[in-house]
Design goal:
heterodimer, A: 466 residues, two-stranded antiparallel ribbon, 13 helices, elongated, B: alpha/beta, 11 strands, globular
Amino acid sequence: MNFLKRAVRSLWARKARTLIMLVALLAISSMTLGASLIDDATSRAGQAAQDGVGAEADLSLDINKLMAAGGGQGGLSASQQLESAVADKLGDSPVVESYNYTVSDGVHLLGGTKIVSGTSAQPGDATFLPLQGVLNSARMPGFQSGQDRLVAGRGLDTSTKNLDDVLVEQRFATQNNLHVGDKIRLGADDPGSKAAADFTVVGIYSDSLPTSQSDPDTGASPANGILAAIGGLAKLNGEIDNGSVRINTATFQLKSPGDLGALSAQAAHDGLDTSIYDLTLNDKAYQQMTGPINSVASTTNLAKWLIAIAGAAVLGLLVALTVRQRRREFGILLAMGERKWKLVAQLLVETAALAIVAVGLSAFFAPSLTQSAGDALLHSQVTAAQQKIDDYVAPPAGSTGVNQGTSPDSAPVAGANPIDKIHVSLDAATVGEVAGVGLGIAILAAAIPAVSAIRLTPRTILTKGK
Amino acid sequence: MTSTTPPEAEPVLRLAAVSHTYSGDGRKTPVLKQIDLSFERGTLTAIVGPSGSGKTTLLSLASGLDTPTKGTVYFDGRDLADVGLGRYRNRHAATIFQHYNLLTYMTALQNVTTAMEITGVEPGQGGRRRRALEVLESVGLDRHEASRNVMRLSGGQQQRVAIARALACDVDILFADEPTGNLDEETAQGIIEAFQELAHQRNKCVVVVTHSQHIANQSDHVLILRNGKLSGPPRRNR
């Protein structure tokens, strides 16, 4: 292994050249490692956010698809209705952590129960109240965001699915002197129907929206909110068929956003009419939280590859220059009968040895420097994201905001604050990755000029330029 | 059946109808023309001739640094192409260059031991280092000089390192291109004696390209090259 000995002697004897190469490699590896560390830190922060909020898949009717399919005139046909049985099957999927589905419906208040004073009744039908049938009240958007809060009793879940149970809003409960365990008599939404049932108030919740801020779709005041067990409501309104009820939308809490594909495949397999229904990912909270770190990660990732490519070019030029200066040395060694691969190996060993030292040094210094750089980068991104959230103006009460130019989808998710801290930490995998990239660059940069030089005969090398 | 005359020994190196032409700038310059030549073990041969006569080119072809454009070079009866130029230079031939061609980042001693390692000289008793020091001493370099970087040595000392490097490699043929050009008379005579010792005592073939009549006179054979052609059969001094 005389080429190893020669490599060490060459590095030691040519101190200035060794130092220049080391500085170049140190700069490349420090920047690459720094970018990798930020990438890794943002990835971990993103994973933590994902673990915290997960991702939600929404199953709902796609009006555009329905129109394209020639439907939509006179409502959905029976075969096009979305059934709870399909959602239940999807809910059992291993990629789903929990799920919920809802139906928008209505009831008539019977037995003297009244809407909250000062709120508007339905024109021409003072006892009619729009409400939602739900499977799992805890997964309702209001409860998820903190807008709604259970103040007494318990929520609705799969165990109450087919029971005549309701959750009522605190103001409605106060108006009607309702307590947990009390019953209210509700009639079917069809005024011609005589169907009625006593529903048990299993819980009372508080909605933070003011009484005057009516729902833009139904016109109902949040003070008159009632959430009914979906099966019990369907029985009342005669919309149950073999235990399955008609639903409007279903939401599935996924273990990971990447699981959407598996769920979609299962939905198609389970008979969902994918020509009019869509499963879409609702990861708004996750995106809101991870927007700044994703932006930082994307910048640093781009920087990493730019540095790697530019570094390879600079290193390649340096090594090419070195090889040019060392042609005579190669000629001498070849004249002695040294094998060509050993000359290439010597160059590779010299460059790789410096690359290893550079990666080692950068592993020592990079984490602390990267933490400061990462914090600075993230700070500006978080400030911008927070500004955008703070600048959001909710549409006026009773409006979807469309007429004011505000998209209903642009509302920030409450409680999903942008991640403003990343923790840079060095691990073997990251160092290994950078060492691999560094060595790859060094080897490539050394091999190409070395191979081109030793293609010549020793006589050509030794007499060239003379 | 017995022969009345013993068969002639196979020359260690033979050039058969060797010609060489350099191409460049769209021109072809013939340097060597139809050279037929043999070198035997146990001899010191001097190649003399005016500048540009093709001496160094002949040396390059014979030492395996380059291949002839025409003709064949044989080592021990085998075509060099079959032996392999790299292997030939590694195991059988060593060259002392006119411009020393030392590894400039090494000491004199390291230059010699590196050559020994590359050419596979067995460490022997005391190791390569000891053997290298002995050879360096034989060309007039002491331990202090042996441990200095070659760039810190004078031209004459560098020439001696180049000679020691070739001597230390236990090869069959030693080629030298103006080996004593930068040496004083006394050292030059020591080098010639070392070549004679290699040829006559250790049965090596030594080929020296020189302008020095002094070396030519002390060689066993002298070849005169003019305009890429041998000017006649080798002149025998002994």
